[in-house]
Specification:
Beta-lactamase, 304 residues, alpha+beta, five-stranded antiparallel beta sheet
């Protein structure tokens, strides 16, 4: 498969002017991002990298980080994790509070904000220094030590993160949060501030295309049955209340973030990341979704 030629076609056919969304503004630092940014990177292993545009530039990965923290929590908790968070699509915005009271403080899935905050509570509860351990985890699966938190973004999130703080307090009142609120939200704001490029994200997500093993070393990070479940959650819940649309148009497991990034995997084939900060009304990168749809159309393969 001539992936570079396919990516070149996508690059030449698409432009930020073709979409009608806007850059995320509720986090002040994200509102400063140039809406013209557009990059894509595909990784097949064996040092086969293909990309274009701004694929080497770092950006705030935001909710894409929820996949990393879920991996860590599943390795700690095993099946007991699902007593505290469900695995169903939410059908509601990613920061909604409306379902929690009806469902006794159990979030619908680990990728909406409420679910990710429960995962943060687990990591804060079990790890001595969760921020350092998350950073070490991401650096290990990428083989890249040049990955860090963007403290300016983390501070910006904290200054406007009242709804996330409300979610933690509400779930604590309903008995599904163990730790104090401040360390939970501090960790959560930092995980969302992780700054990575499309190339780094494609490397990181290759473990989900490779049955939980780092491709270059063969080291097992997660058991294959854990990877199967994470991929299923990305397929059904990775795009908030637009997960069905992404499955219909693209046909790959993936995860988006309001920083404009999307990562998707084709098991045993490739991992691909795309970045365009203009978001649609659901909070997903509009140009990124179009680019991934073109990828699976031009290659003629998806998971379906």
């Amino acid at each position: 498969m001539d992936y570079q030629n396919i990516l070149n076609t996508i690059h030449s056919d698409m432009n930020y002017r073709d979409v009608g969304g806007k850059v995320a503004s509720y986090i002040p630092e994200l509102a400063k991002i140039d809406p013209r940014k557009f990059g894509m990177h595909l990784y097949c292993g064996e040092n086969r990298h293909y990309g274009f545009g701004d694929s080497e530039e770092k950006f705030s990965i935001q909710s894409i980080s929820k996949v990393f923290t879920l991996c860590m929590a599943m390795n700690i908790m095993g099946e007991d994790l699902w007593d505290r968070v469900d695995v169903e699509p939410s059908g509601n915005p990613f920061n909604s509070l409306t379902q929690l009271e009806q469902e006794n403080g159990i979030p619908r899935n680990p990728f909406i904000n409420a679910g990710a905050l429960v995962i943060s509570d687990i990591l804060v509860d079990h790890l001595k220094n969760p921020k350092e351990e998350l950073l070490a985890f991401v650096r290990k699966i990428t083989g890249d030590s040049d990955i860090n938190y963007d403290n300016t973004v983390a501070s910006s999130e904290k200054s406007t993160g009242f709804r996330n703080i409300a979610l933690v307090n509400y779930m604590k009142a309903l008995g599904n949060i163990k730790c104090e609120v401040e360390p939970i939200v501090d960790f959560y704001f930092h995980q969302c501030s992780l700054a990575m490029s499309c190339r780094q994200l494609a490397k990181a997500f290759m473990i989900f295309a490779n049955k939980g093993r780092i491709l270059e070393t063969g080291e097992e990070i997660m058991r294959p049955e854990v990877v199967k479940r994470i991929n299923a959650l990305m397929q059904t819940c990775g795009f908030y209340d637009e997960a069905g649309e992404f499955s219909f148009e693209v046909g790959l497991p993936g995860k988006s973030g309001v920083g404009g990034g999307i990562v998707a995997i084709h098991p045993e084939r490739y991992s691909v990341a795309v970045w365009s900060p203009i978001l649609n009304e659901k909070g997903n990168s509009e140009l990124g979704m179009k680019a991934l749809e073109r990828l699976t159309t031009l290659t003629g393969v998806s998971v379906f």
